[in-house]
Amino acid sequence: MGKEKNQAGKALNLLRSRLCDPNFIFKPLSDSPETNYSKLKFIISSSIKEACNNSILLLGPRGSGKVSVLELVLGDLLQEHLDQISVIRLNGLLHSDDNCAFKEIARQLCVEHQLLFSKMASFDDNSQFMIAMLQECGLAHKTIIFVLDEFDLFAQGKQRLLYSLLDAMQSVTSQAVVIGVSCRLDADQLLEKRVRSRFSHRKLLFLPPSKEDLERLLEHVLSLPLDSTFSHGYALDFNEKFKSILRDKRFEEVIDTYLNSSSTVSQLLRFLFCAVSFMDVESEFLSLENFKTALLTIQRQPKLECVKDCSILELYLLVCMKRLEVKEQNSYNFNSVMKEYKSVHDTFQTCDYYSRNVCLRAFEHLLQRELICFSDNRGTGQSLEFRPVKLLISPVELYQGLKSYRSCPAILLKLMDR
Q1: pLDDT band with cut points at 50, 70 and 90 for residue 330
Q2: Does the fold of domain 304-417 match that of domain 31-205?
Q3: Residue 145's pLDDT band (cuts 50, 70, 90)
Q4: Which residues contact 233 (CB under 8 A, 6 or more apart)?
Q5: 183-199 mean pLDDT
Q6: Could you tell me how far CA 52 lies from the centroid of its own chain?
Q7: How far from each other are the two terminal CA atoms of the chain, in whole angstroms?
Q8: Please, which residues bridge with residue 90 across strands?
Q9: Under CATH, which architecture does the 31-205 domain have?
Q10: Between the ranges 133-137, 202-206, 226-230, 297-301, where is the mean pLDDT highest?
Q11: So what's the pLDDT on residue 77?
Q12: Which family does it belong to (predicted)?
């Protein structure tokens, strides 16, 4: 038993280390020419080998792997072409000002080529220095790679940096690659005509994983290697049990629920890391419950937490408002809620019935907790009982909150089903 525990502990550590390693996540199919990793590496390596200038945009939502893939490619190329590459990195959040950007480029070039950097150099001095270095590096068959993160921020204002950079790359002697990274899919449309005419218009799109990509990713990340320090029997059993989880429709529902709110690769990896961390070493294998627990843990549900802290009376008022909305009463106020509350009491003879003043205080408490709010601000001079309100919690959230409420009256769950 101790040996199996040890195997399970090693499996847990391996899976967690994989989920934190971009090299493992984004390079599983590096031999395939269809991956963004392969496409980007081909474009940059071709520019280096053929001594030509190039520009490309990496576009996609935040967390889709743009920077991770770019760093993997640059890491590989720096090893393959050690003395032929120089990487200059700028970020639009820090360097969108042209003067600041040119100064940062000059500083990084000086550090790279062991030159003395002057903090007092003017905008024109730094601009001329960059152009001269592009020509010098071109003659020395060395490629300068400019990485412009938050590229769309550089496309604001007069775009002098982009124009100077792309214009200098028109020279036969210069040798550079400009890589723009942006979460705006229309980033190239922000460019001025003079800048756009000098841009190559190459684009790589990073999109949320498809269902097939997702299945491959899960199997790639969460399966144990058979040719490793794990016992062959344990690795086979582990992989077989995980495949049975993948085939389970309940697992598919868990993943779909999570992806409906968080569809990027980085968020998915965070979810998987959380699920793996819930693996019970005693049971030795991943289970469906690990993923269900991770879903409940990782998704913030502040409204549900608020419902758990409500009084029984406040729950009644929330359910009455939900019933009014089902009856298509889109506009209702405290008086309407009280009528519904009395109707429920008269129909089901509930023992939980409170006076109007007590209900009003509970109603005010719901407003303070932001489980309900006023529909508009037009009736600010009106008495509280007459101002229209609306629910800020969905029927699904309310039902889940009632189910998880320890002393919730059974009648409330019945009323939710009606």
Answers
A1: confident
A2: no
A3: very high
A4: none
A5: 89
A6: 35
A7: 51
A8: 148
A9: 3-Layer(aba) Sandwich (3.40)
A10: 202-206
A11: 92
A12: Belongs to the ORC4 family.
Of 165, 286, 268, residue with least CA distance to 224: 286
Distance between CA atoms of residues 151 and 55, nearest Å: 12
Q: What is the pTM assigned to this prediction?
A: 0.65
Retrieve residue 62's tokens: 């935040």
d(CA 24, CA 297): 26
The answer to whether 64 and 208 have CB atoms below 8 angstroms apart is yes
CATH architecture of 304-417: Orthogonal Bundle (1.10)
Q: Give Cβ neighbours of residue 268 (< 8 Å, ≥ 6 apart).
A: 209, 214, 217, 258, 259, 262
On whether the CB atoms of residues 264 and 63 are closer than 8 A, the answer is yes
Q: What is the pLDDT of residues 355-364, one digit of tens each?
A: 899 999 999 9
In whole angstroms, give the CA distance from residue 281 to residue 299. 24
Partnered with residue 204 across adjacent β-strands are 58
